[in-house]
Request: fold
Amino acid sequence: MEASGMDRLRITGGQKLQGTVTVSGAKNAALPQIAAAFLSPHPLELTNLPQVSDVDNMLQVAALYGAEVERGAHATTIDAGSIRSCEVSYDTVRRMRATVLFLAPLLARFGSARVSLPGGCAIGARPVDMHIRALEALGASIDIENGLIVASASAGLKGARVVLASPSVGATETAMMAATMASGETEILNAAREPEVADLAACLAAMGAHIEGAGTHRILIAGGTEWKPAKHHGIPDRIEAGTYAVAAAITGGTLELTNARIENLAAVIQLLEAMGTNVWPSSRGLVVSRNGPLQTADITTEPYPGFPTDLQAQFMALACIAEGTSLIRETIFENRFMHVPELIRLGAEIRLQGTTAVIHGGKPLKGAQVMATDLRASVSLVLAALAAEGETVINRVYHLDRGYEQLDRKLAQCGAHIERLRD
Ligand SMILES: CC(=O)N[C@H]1[C@@H](OP(=O)(O)OP(=O)(O)OC[C@H]2O[C@@H](n3ccc(=O)[nH]c3=O)[C@H](O)[C@@H]2O)O[C@H](CO)[C@@H](O)[C@@H]1O
Ligand SMILES: C=C(OP(=O)(O)O)C(=O)O
Reply:
């Protein structure tokens, strides 16, 4: 049955999760790769694609530009041979910020593009000034007109040094994609080092691009790519893996996370261990287990390889269970504490002091009706509910469906008492 926007999740807490969870492909790797397909007139086949609504929406937007999109369960082929650099309505793109990633490929391929300026969202204002500065450094002229980013480079983009003011993931991806079609070489300095950036580079390389240094602060891209048909298998979702690791820790259970890549989770594993959870590699991924008491934490979100902002809300739920005071500082987004009032509804004691959350853990959590306004905030409520006494109903499940493939089924298979209430 199709998931509805108004579905709710009912969770009865108290079960120790046991079993195996298969980690899906990374949403945040898939989204830029769908945009990258626009650089080439040849088909790009993406495998290990997660079945999440953000991917569906991104593919729908690709189709609006004229791409031929074939969709399998965990794969897609995007043929951008006959796309147009047209305008897609704000209503279509406002649901997803990642659609701004179509700007660079459209501009690089057609010499002009008009893409809706994405709005802010629940976690922050999220401007795209660094994307724009990067394209300007490559020779584009850019104006903002009636809510649109209007970009042109009639003489083509020219390779250059692009120095990012901070290591933005999206701006690094924009610069890297544009540079593959510029004339000459581009050097991106202060580049984001996230694994999803390196995976985009691997995808672009399979398509014919020449890129060095992705995954480091300095990326070199040779322009003038001769594109070819390509196939790329995306990396597993490190944020989904981290979320299930917290599910094991918060319930005092044991989960094997198949496909999880230890090398992309170093800061997360270090923190789990510091909080009293055991983590070890298995032949298929990693195992996370807790049977002793949880310890408090002192967490600061940072760009990769630091602790990821996309796991901040989940670890806040975990800190609520640890006896004593934990601190969580959010340094990436200015408003990413929307889960705090809802965790308080479940009985947590949390005080906000500017960008720091002070969690007085160890108070018993009790089920309640809750809802959240973004993906990771929602999943933190699911995690807290797994550890809470009694029944929790989480509204607005569509936030979860944006980025978690079959969350309810994966948790139920490991013993969680979780049920999707269809609208
Ligand atoms: C689809 C995707 O991959 N999303 C991820 C990506 O988002 P996204 O690519 O949007 O995140 P960025 O790394 O660009 O943003 C980091 C910070 O820089 C700011 N900024 C960014 C661009 C810009 O032009 N100007 C500016 O000020 C943002 O508002 C934010 O405060 O990385 C974030 C940080 O790891 C993750 O939380 C998101 O899950
Ligand atoms: C913030 C996230 O995604 P997006 O950048 O697509 O909003 C996320 O995945 O947690």
